[in-house]
Amino acid sequence: MVASYEVRLFGMWASPAVRRVEWALQLKGIEYEYIEEDLSNKSSSLLEYNPINKQVPVLVHDGKPIVESLVILEYIDETWKDKPILPVDPHERAKARFWATFVDVKCREEARKAFHMEGEEKENSIENLQVQLKALDEELEGKKFFSGDHIGYTDLVVGWMAFWLGVAEEAAGFKANHEAKFPHFARWIKDFLQEPVIKENLPPREKTVEFFCAFRQLGGCGKMNQK
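^ thats the sequence. predicted structure below, dont judge the formating
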């Protein structure tokens, strides 16, 4: 581990946005304190450090809060230079940011709709999500990870689709990701989930499915408060 800094992470166990920050911290070898939040009864510390959107994750470094998971990932990479997660080459770095935005905005929105909606709206969202999965599958052709031979920034951002997309499919009774249709993406999922830092820092699947089932039944669209 690197020398100890005052690093704290406010999170919630089922949040993929929180986990991607944990993965980055652990890939970098950064010591940190994890603080679990009850999002139905948010702590005064969370509200103090993130008064605008009151979401997790929040990274606090030397008393200074950083919010929004993609921003946090870049902050981590810029602050602790060893084991970079973003490419050095400006063009490759721009590509990584493009795919991160693509997945975190477009893919997540279609997955959210497929999770919550029914009927024609659900089917349309599944079709849209499959178009997006095809684009990711093509990007992975000939590569182990989005970042090459090792996990990088894009992999950490897309990581929610390796675990939480399957959880959402099971909880909401739909299927968008098919191994036969997206073989490169399916192989990436297997490789990604076998990486020790990832494998050892995932929530229990059964507990997560139960949580998402309850979340859906409560009409929790947009209420998990994580980004």
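The first strand starts at residue 7 and ends at 11.
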